[in-house]
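Appendix C reproduces, verbatim, an entry submitted by the partner laboratory led by Prof. M.T., so that reviewers can inspect both the input and the predicted structure.
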Amino acid sequence: MVKMSLDPVQVMSGQVKELKVSPSSNGDSRGPWEGKEEEFDQDHLGLTTKPKLVTGRRVRKVEGGVFFPKPENAVTIAVSSRVLFRTEREQEVYEQQGVEEYLRYQIEHENEPFAPGPAFPLVKALEAVNAHLRELYPQSEELFDIILVTYNHAHVGIRLINTINHHNLFIERFCMTGGSSPIGYLKAWHTNLYLSADADKVREALAEGIAAATMFMSDIQTEVSETQLRVAFDGDAVLFSDESERIFKAHGLDKFFEHERDNEDTLLDHGPLKGFLEALGKLQKKFYAKGQRLNCPIRTYLVTARSAASSGIRALKTLRAWGLEIDEALFLAGAPKGPMLEKIRPHIYFDDQMFHVEGAAEMGTIAAHVPYGIAQKHPRKK
């Protein structure tokens, strides 16, 4: 993946020239999705119930008014524009022609919505869960809060907003950094998960204690559920620490099994995505409290290369001690993960080894790499 890094000094100090917007092909500067929409009284931050007709910007409403949870109460998912939408052409313009031409291109095409990217189905599923939560708990602030995070200059914001309205997404929080690192903002937002195409920024987030993963565009993409959010996790170096993985890398499989048997009553330390699983569990319990355990719109999976009899008990005891429930656990004993993931059809699968991420992606699974632990120093040979 190629890293995008606009120069914040250049773009924020006025060195980028003023750019003009060209009209769309029909001679109208508005996008085809724009028209008369209901808008709430902005003097009351969108909380009045008397709509008025305006021309232009689309405003989506929630029953009872526009509702924004406090970040400290919500499960905050930060998604970069490069994984939410397909921006390969724009990235190519930036790399080959520079920042000024890149910004000019974006503004000239700002009435053309981006196509969905690899994180798009996940965001739609998060919104579907939110709809269920609001039906059960109309005033609750414990729900998914999605933030669009981008290194882009604010000039590109109009195209991003147009695209979000075109796809009818409910994303109101933006973080446009003009080339600067977004990590400080992610901490201020109490971010529970950060998804990006920039592996360096993902590693930076992980170093700051923020759950994060790198997403990639796959040529094949399996259809996923529109009514149930499905999230699959690897175990070691994802939910758990890389302690056991280190034993395996240093001493081989037999020593690994021996170590796990000797320590089956010793809890594994937490990995980088434990907190995100906890956040999912918090929302699952809200459905359980309303008698919806069997048809909960959130479902979690553990998909691990561990074997059940030889090394599975320690992983399960650790999850139980943490008070975390995994809906399904697949112990594959070294078998390929791709075929199992193809059956699960998760909206996202997290793994610390690119070998497994690539294998899953080849079969159409939306997979994300967690660059954490000993496997990054000793990648598996193909």
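The chain is about 35% helix and 15% strand. Additional entries are available on request from the coordinating office.
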